[in-house]
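Quick one: Guanylate kinase from Secundilactobacillus paracollinoides, structure tokens please.
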Amino acid sequence: MKRVIVITGATGTGKTTVSSYLTDQFHIPRIITHTTRPKRPGEQEGVDYYFETPETFKQNHYLESVHYANYQYGSSLEGLARAFSKSDLVSIVLDTKGAETYVKELDTRVSVLFLTVAHPLLLKERLEQRGDQLEMVKNRLASDEYRRDLTLPAGLSGIATVIQNDKWDTTKNRLDEFVAELTTPTSPKA
Ligand SMILES: Nc1ncnc2c1ncn2[C@@H]1O[C@H](COP(=O)(O)OP(=O)(O)OP(=O)(O)O)[C@@H](O)[C@H]1O
Ligand SMILES: Nc1nc2c(ncn2[C@@H]2O[C@H](COP(=O)(O)O)[C@@H](O)[C@H]2O)c(=O)[nH]1
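--- reply ---
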């Protein structure tokens, strides 16, 4: 059965880092989503995102789309099909609103990881260290979406596996266990 690991949580909690680990360690490809935000240094078209203008953004067919801190983001049916052509088990990085939509739309074909950190101050430091523009960090941390995504939403409670991503070695161990449960045929989660 095809399955999507939805990785969600606040900005800077490490969602993309976790998704890259799943690709490198377990060959789980990521669904590439679309955004109208400008590229960060080092980001590549079709690898990190499909970078769109507000006009081209409208031309895709979305399973869900959101506004996040003044930009548009969406996961297209085309992007989903492209990832599933590589593997029956894929991941996607979403804000919590998108994660709730995925659970509603794909139901038992979704496994959710919700990432947190011990203190939100860590997130500001991580965004700055990542090289985000200071103005962008300021706007993002002042957004309703940022505050919303700090807490596990009711719609994901009892569904999501929560991982506190403070120490990367601990997170890696939790991820290894999570994937083992998903991919063991006798496991209730498989
Ligand atoms: N456990 C960790 N300890 C220290 N730094 C980390 C850890 N996990 C991730 N990081 C770093 O934190 C920064 C943010 O991580 P990442 O880009 O994966 O977050 P994100 O949740 O995808 O963010 P966004 O929602 O803004 O795209 C990156 O520079 C990453 O290398
Ligand atoms: N609901 C969706 N959320 C998405 C999608 N693609 C990314 N995201 C989330 O947006 C924020 C900001 O991302 P950033 O790359 O600008 O830092 C973050 O929470 C992502 O997880 C999407 O297609 N749908």
